[in-house]
Amino acid sequence: MAVLKKIEKRGALEQASKVRRRCGEVLRFAVVTGRAKYNFAPDLAIALNEPKQNHFPFLTEKEIPAFVEALDTYQGSLLTKYATQATYAHWCPNR
User: Fold this and answer.
1) Among the four residues 2, 25, 39, 56, which has the most C-beta atoms within 10 Å?
2) Do 67 and 47 form a contact (C-beta atoms < 8 A)?
3) What are the two backbone dihedrals, phi and then psi, of residue 82, each rounded to the nearest 5 degrees?
């Protein structure tokens, strides 16, 4: 619990959640193989803060031209760029 609280204290809530889940996997294996009697990892979730959910809103009609222009000059992953362009072309074929 101390390790999880230390991770949580620095604001890495998603990381703390992942570490807790991994501990749960290890403890589940320990129970199955007879090395532990009880998997207490799910109980730790009650004591931890949940990561904040970020829901991203849709683009308004006024924002779409700027988005398409930004997408054309996007310098990141080509896979991301092409997948976004394909999705846009599918949902907005007349633009």
Assistant:
1) 39
2) no
3) -70, -35
SS3 10: coil
Q: Which amino acid is residue 60, in one-letter code?
A: T
Cβ count near 63 (within 10 Å): 11
**Residue with tokens 């998603």, as numbered in its chain:** 14
Question: Residue 65 and residue 18: Cα distance in Å, rounded?
Answer: 38
Domains of the chain (ranges plus CATH)? 2-47 (1.10.150.130), 56-95 (no CATH)
